[in-house]
Batch of 2 targets.
Target 1
Amino acid sequence: MVSEERALDLALAAVHAAVAAGAEWADAGVFCSQGQSVEFERNTVRECSSGRHEGLGVRAFVAGGMGTASASGLDLHTARRVGSEAAEMARTASPDPDFHRLPDPRPLEPPPVSWDDAVAGLPSQTLVEWCLEDIERGRSVTDDVFMSGAAGISAGVAAIASSTGVAVARRGTHVSWYVGASVWRDDRAASFFDGRSAVRLSDVQRGEGIVEKTVQTALALLDEATVPTGRRDVVLDYDVAGEWLYGVLAAAEAEGVQRGRSFMVGKEGDQIASDVITVIEDPFAPAAPASSSWDGEGMPKSRSALLDRGVLTTYLHNSYTAFKAGVEITGHASRSGGYVGIGLSNLQVQPGSVTKAELIAGIDSGLLIILGAPDPNRVTGQVSSTVDGGFLIEKGEVRGAVKGAMIAGHIFDLLRSVDAVSSDYRAYPGRIYPALRIRDVLVSSR
Amino acid sequence: MRELLEELVQRGMRAGAQFAEVRAGTWRGASVTAEDGRIHRCSTYSSRGAGLRVLVRGAWGFASTDNLDPTSLRTALDEAIAMASAASPRVAQAARVAEAPSVEALSRAPVRMPPDSVSLSERVGAVAAFEERLRKHHTAIVNTIVNYTDGGGVTELVNSFGSYVRWEGSTCSLYLTAVAANETTRQSAFSGYASPRGFEVVADLDPDEVSDRTAQRAVDLLSAAEPPAGSMPVIVDPEITGLIVHEAFGHNCEADLVWAGESIVAGKEGQQVAAECVTIVDDPTWDWHNGSFEYDDEGVPARRHVLVQSGVLTEYLYDLEMAAHFGVAPNGAARAGSYHDRPLPRMSNTFMEPGDAELEDLIASVDRGVLICGDRGGYVDTTRGHFTFFAETGFEILDGRLGRQIRNCTLSGYTLETLRGVLGLSRDFGVADRGTCGKHGQGVRVSLGGPHMLVREITVGGSRIGEDT
């Protein structure tokens, strides 16, 4: 694997080639990663694999027209070729009066912990043992379960350089595992899955009952019953609630808003959700896979409340959308090859004052959704979503699994109908996901 | 390159592998995106790499790399061998591969206009023409995106059966999105075209017709009603029929899912799984549609697969390993997303055969229900056989006649209940050549289609309850 210094040198070489070929502005991203993974299926190890991947992408501008080029491989010849091609492509694109410039370098916070030698040096045999452990743990709950899953590690280097002097690089490790449990009884079938990912080996939460709980949940989902169509209160379990709010806030990316293709148009500064919801983005959380002190353009990230007591405080900007809107860069640029988009890092939903059990206890007739976030259509904001895994709530008690239920409404109506956030939550490195209760949701069924 | 790949396979076999395979290739292409009256971005991309796979004492080892120099490839192979060797004592069910005939083949799609033979300015001009027409179709259009991508290259396969296959090919795709808005809502429409051919995929289209139709669909949605909620008779258009056939049913016929216990048709070969009027085919040899190929990614010649004949399950889709497990001959259905991925049993061009009814007669047979049109994707829980699909639009059906247009519909149901509840199929037939299918993180080109299909009952996820449909 190349060093951070070498990655930066290659990024700079690509930028210089782009400028030499006529680009007025250019930036480049370099990546290199290597990893190993082991997969299991039907209670047996299926495959061990390794991968070594490296490449770079360049973005160049001529009169605001944007060209990009990307290639696999990391060598000086490739870097120069890609830089030159990006400049040539930029000349073919249309001038863009909304493009101002690429941003100058800015001071950065100290980088969060992103590397663990224990992960980088983990032998593949340990991954095999993890998989075998998970199979045994699953079968200790019920012998007729089919377990599937994987465990993997990777280590990588990323660097970004620009014609304005941005030059940042970092290295990182990643370790992850997941399990799926499938069970059959007569003509009924059910499955459930869970997993964890982390930067450090010590954070990966092996042996904490997660596998056993996954199998128990699959078993509980076997006994499905339909619920009548009607309006009900709904509790989104920890992960579902976290994924739901992540999807909502990801839709606040400024490019979609500026182009008019987002339900978030005109919503900056508005109360879009109930005032019980506050979501903080923390890109500096230590040892979290999504943490970084700089974004995909090398700009500083910041910790802030994106949703403050239900108010959308800001759109998510990269430099293009920020200059176009005349606002500060928010550090949300993402990069894939030469393409720069907009993305989020770690979300921490602020816990409330009552437990999830108390949220449920306050429901006379409702649903607890444990799988399948009610995501909105990114253009319309309309929600029409299947309950992939859920349980009926009756008189404050969780009953049997629900079959074939769907929930519908507009995303803003659902967000404003959230009346409570749980005090207990699921914590992942960098992320905090409590449960939410939504009142009076349309649930349709067979 | 062939000699190097052969040397690697021999090296793997000498190291104790039961089976060894190397796929390597290079690919290069361009992309043009027009948005809101400008050529927003022009791009080039190139990739290279190899995937090396060995089976050692019942354990698979796989390695991929972006470097094609001999040292990198040998290192990758050695890693695959080492990992498989280390894992083999812990494998509970030893993997095997079915014997496949040795082939030596050059596979080349009939490309009339290779993308790199068309100047970049011509490609840009074509994209601009689509976008301009899309944007100017109606004042309600607020955002337009047209994306064109092409590519071409070579992939080579060598395996320990002595097979050598060289694929030379190209791909080309065009996608259009129009967003329309009024004071109360915004709606979008999407059209796509993709094929393992050349620039003729775009050149043969009429920009005015394609763009006008796409933009008008977005405009029409502004005044459409929200769909009714609940279970009801549903007629789906050929796109949704194709989505049900591919996504809800076809994945269940992939033999690795059958083996893993994740298929609702496991053990049902020879059994009635659908209404008698239903015949489902997966055909990679079908006239170079988007999912077509001549040899699969394990070097097995492609052939037509009849998955369901008159409602009876007849065949699964196999790779070499699953063919060995089920004791059958490989049937040419192993596909890999790229040379960085291992081959898996996959679909290609999957469709339901048409029936003999007129669409009007299907509509006339429904008292209260909906006609649903336009695939917007979805997902399936294969273990439970439950699907969720999103559709662009549709129409209410009341007393055998089409009523108000509806929008943003979601369909949810159980696959076998749905296929057993098919009441009629139209004689018309449509195919969507535009998509990729994802599995285990790998995307492969596919097409899907069928006739209009009337189903006794599917759950529609809407926002209106307690109303007449």
Target 2
Amino acid sequence: MTKEKTDLLQGTLDMLILKALQLEPMHGFGISVRIRQISDEVLQVEQGSLYPALYRLEDQGWIKSEWGTSDNNRKAKFYSLTASGRRQLESETANWAKLSAAINLVLKGARGAASPKL
Amino acid sequence: MSWMPQFKYRLRTLFRRSVVERDMAAEMRAHLEMQEQVNRAAGMSPDEARFAAQRQFGHLDGIKETVRDQCGWVWLEQLWKDFRFAARSLRKSPGFTAVALLTLALGIGVNTAVFSIINNLFFQPLPVRDPGSLVVVAARTPVSSLLRGYEYPNYLDLRAQVDAFSDLMAYSTAPIDLAASGVEPDRTYAAVVTGNFFSFFGVPAARGRLFLPGEGQEIGADPILVLSNAYWQQHFGGDPSVVGRSVNVNGHPYIVVGIAPATFTGTQAGLSANVFLPVTMTGDLMTNGAQLLQARAGMPLKVMGRLKPGVSLDQAQAEVATVVERIARTYPKESVGGTPLVIREQRTRPDPGFTEFMPLISKVFMGLVGLVLLIACANVANLMFLRATVRRREMTLRSALGASRWQLCRQLLAESFLLAATASAVGLVLGYWGASWLVRFVSSATPLALVGASWDWRVFLFAAAMALLAGLLTGLMPALKVSRVDLQTSLKQGGVALSAASRHPFRSILVVSQVAVSLVVLVCGGVFLRSLQHVSPQFLGFRTDHLLMATFDLGLHGYNPDRAGRFQQQLLEKARALPGVEAATLGTFVPFALYSSLNVAVPEGKTVRGIQDMTVTPYGLVAPDFVQAMGMTLLRGRDFSTQDKTGAPMVAIINEEMAAQFWPGQDPLGKRCYVGGPPALEVVGVVRTGRYMMVGEAASPFILQPLAQSYDKTPLTLYLRTQGDPAALIPDVRNLVQALDPALPLYNVETMDRHLNDGLLALLPLRTGAALAVLQGLFALVLVVMGLYGVVSFVASQRTREIGIRLALGAQKGDVLRLVLGDGLKLTLAGVAIGAVLSLALIRVLPRILYGLAAGSSPVMLAAGLLLTGIALLACWIPARRATRVNPVEILKAE
């Protein structure tokens, strides 16, 4: 299931998409806007990465899609999390937490250990 | 169930391609529109908003492409594309495709045909209850490499004392003469079985009943029989009233109690039984049968058992060994010894006796036909190679446009796999025909064998495997070789070809080996043909035309010598009186019969210390005028007459070869020799040496003795020399024998010419061999021509520039011709030389069917070599001629 551990960037995008979909179904445009908003405009998702990722996630069975109507009465494809997608999000979130904590430790530790020598 | 939606999604992307594409486009359009709206809301003009949205989104088709490429089915799509492309490019060169397809289809066809028969023989379970628990119980003895069964009393002990089996059954086969009122008496084969035979197999009766529990227990008590369904249909027309009727077995009355079901063909896969008799009736089937049956060391039966559930083969074997040991201790004098074996039934086919050989034989056979496939593959590989080199330009272009080596390879491989798969389908059809032909052929040659072909999933799996193998074999080498495109040199296109051999070692080797193989095959065909020509009355030692033969077996019907003598007398008299009969005679000797009678002979006065001092010779007991009626050439002395009877001096007629071996340089007439034992026989005649057991045998001694002086119980054959078509007399002969003894069947009723042509030991192998070899030889020749033409014309076209320069510098057309022809000739001569060595070796080790006939093989070889070289030159001539027409001016201008 967790196949992209090594590819941090792609894995991260997948995780962000899953996270964006956690509360409610959304269309592609909405997802990109949501990610930008939550990240305080720091993360810009390229459409060239977003759509391949969406199709990949659907192929994996983590999200499913359905045609629906958007807020301003436009036809749009809405993505929502599946049960296995929810599980995936949980495990990725946990992994991410562990990883970032570990990286933080390393970064802090390295500073602390290096300074006495200087 | 979480995979279900995912699975549905994947199926949708595979099969609803257009819907997915439309969705994707619509979705991205929606995204753009939303972005546009947002942009407009931020205060951009409509146009600006749209362009900005497009800029932000990026390259639409590029994104779609990325999405498509990561879909799980890309590989399938690419494969599909490769195959479609392959199909298109194959269609574009129908000639190549047809030849390659046919070659592979033949190779695969032969293989599937043989496999379907092997499948039938070895892999199909017996059509009985629980076939998986069946085992064969036999002994490996030090005296013979064949496995041995157990005698009836020993079988009874095994059955009573071995606990590992739920039941044991024993059987053997015997020829019988079966007669009934209203049907032609018939000689057929019976399965002679223990009383529990049918219950052992769990087979129900189709009509009537089978053997009851009390039957087949007491010696000689149950004159009953069961007919196989096929035999009942064939010989009794499926008449239901046959059940309960009395029929005649070897002159003894038997009751038909029932008919076995159609699915049940007998105990052994591959062997049909027509009639089932209780083993306790063996007394009616052979001389001293009852005593033989009851002996502990005499007539072994084949024993089959059913393993109890949960009992292993080793356990059963150990138990059998214990009982066998006990029997051997109790009856030490009658013990034959040997190690008991318990073998699964499927592993003992087609006959328990051959268990040790069959896997080997079938492996060898499969290996031989596998070789055919390999040759076919080599040929097609060469063709593919030729085609690929011709397409070098195309490859270079593709490569220049960015195709990777793997992509080029894949494209070529797709072609070879497509070819192989199609060939495999055609091969299945060919194989189906081939198998049914083979089955007919084998069953006509050996009446006992129930050879069939089974077409089930195994055959299809086999054909698919063949296709994969063929695809790989034919495609891999050319693909690897050709895809190694060197853009620099190929695009520059100035490559100066050196010669065929140095430029294309792989293809040259293929061409050379093709020439060699086709020479070998041609020589074989020629030798076979010459051998056939060689067969004449002079060579065979008797006249085969206008000769009718019919065999009967008085011994089986319990005739004593007196009665047999009277019968023979009457038969001969009546046969001679038939209109159109020139001469009639009788003999135990049948040339090229499946079972020839042999005897040992010793000249009088020679000291005999053992078998090595005796001469084994074909032998016959014959009626008066045999030599004359058979059209043998009497060199010295006289034929037998009615005077050579009991009480008269014992006489013999021998052949030249025997005279030369026994009394070299002396007059054999009046000399005496022992045949089989005393008394000595006086030689009264010498005939020209002929062929007796096999057409291809070496000159062998031969000895004839008057029938009246030595009655024995072997079957007799009536020979009629006729004026007209001998086959026309068959009904008369049948009526005549019927009138003398209605229960006596005639068999092997046929003309000598047919017997000679279709006999397994006569001309059939030669004729089949000749036909196959000639056919193959021609086939190989065609491939050689194509291969050579391909190589030479390719090389010539590569050298166009060089040739142009040579011509411009003053070379004559003849020089150019020689230059190009030389290439082809070198390859041809190399092949012919290798082929000649190979065929010499082959002729020397060819089986004995060619013995004495292959003497004249050197002219055949010369002819085949010349033919091959000539045709090869012709194949090179066309490209060579084309090369001479090169216009030097154009070539030089093109520079």
